[in-house]
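Board notes (copied after class):
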Amino acid sequence: MSTLTSAPAREQMSAVPGALTPERILYRLDWQVIRRLDGLLQGDYRTLFYGYGIDLADLREYQPEDDVRYIDWNVTARMDTPYVRQYVEDRELTAWFLLDLSPSMDFGLAERQKRAALIDFVATVARLLTRHGNRVGAILYGDRVCGMIPARGGKIQVLRLINDLLKQPHLARAPLTDLAQLLNGALNAVKRRSLIFIVSDFICAPGWERPLKLLSQRHEVLAVRLWDAREMTLPDIGVIVMEDAETGEQVLVDTGDRRFRKAYAEVVQQREAELAATFKRAGVDPMALSTEDDLVRAIVRFSAARKARRTVKG
């Protein structure tokens, strides 16, 4: 399913203001987001990134509550009973951001588009990770895989990530996002087990579920889904021209038609259910991040949810 936006609204979707610099963005996030997270999480970032950066420590028989992704199939076949791999955490981890910068990511009010939320999220998490000696890198997707930032550590790397994201073009038209291409790119490029953030609105062509599952079997994968409230409901504002944010296709619709608004809502709900099912089948933890969300609260909510799931599994 692709998102439709009204033509007048699309005219308000300007690029990230040129006055913004990587230094100013990081300074704002350090004061407004990261300091608050330090207080609320009390440095417990393991809760956020549980399961990452691990080396094989031992093997033991499978228990019903174990994660099936850790079954060692070779040993299982030899012993004729399921065995799972046990891991110990590395001191250092490598994290990769798989970033969707397709046209639908420019949806939203001029001052708070999905792309702006993406930049804030990536910069915040990269800063948290590099402060603890970890490395971060990124693979970028526009109308295709269009760039790769090798994984490195330090504040300079965070500034480079922000700078490269600010410089990425805002595409007016593109084929429907092929998320499978981005995921397959990561499968080929990221060899060592890593923490992977897929940051996208997941408005894309079908066919990405299999590479997502393969990726989650090799790495710790988190799906950060960006959304805007104006995509979810259709207001009664009369006859408007709606435009596909990815392909530019336009259609005239009457939003005053109650049946049309109901049908639109049903399509949105179906898509939400399909996404949730896809993430669950792949064993991927999803984080929903709205353009109107307070980033600190969204991260703390996600941290609490992951901690609760970890407690249940333990």
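Comment from the instructor: The two ends are 38 Å apart (CA to CA). The chain has ten helices and 13 strands.
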